[in-house]
Design the sequence.
């Protein structure tokens, strides 16, 4: 499940490992235009096996997507 919390952030809940990559790619696609407009990259943070956030983030170079685990 994807929940857009702002123009810069999407919360992601994964129901199955089989759809992890597809769901995270959709979150990145949602944020793409905002990232381009702000000349930032996208940071995907894993909070647990089921919970992720994707954010347009100034610490990520423009055109890149980075992943971190908390």
Sequence:
């Amino acid at each position: 499940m994807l929940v857009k919390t702002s123009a810069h952030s999407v919360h992601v809940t994964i129901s199955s490992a089989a759809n992890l990559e597809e769901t995270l790619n959709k979150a990145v696609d949602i944020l793409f235009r905002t990232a381009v407009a702000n000349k930032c990259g996208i940071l995907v943070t894993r909070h647990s096996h089921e919970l992720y956030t994707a954010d347009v983030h100034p610490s990520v170079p423009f055109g890149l997507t980075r992943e971190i685990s908390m």
Observations:
- The chain is about 25% helix and 40% strand.
- The chain has one domain: 2-69.
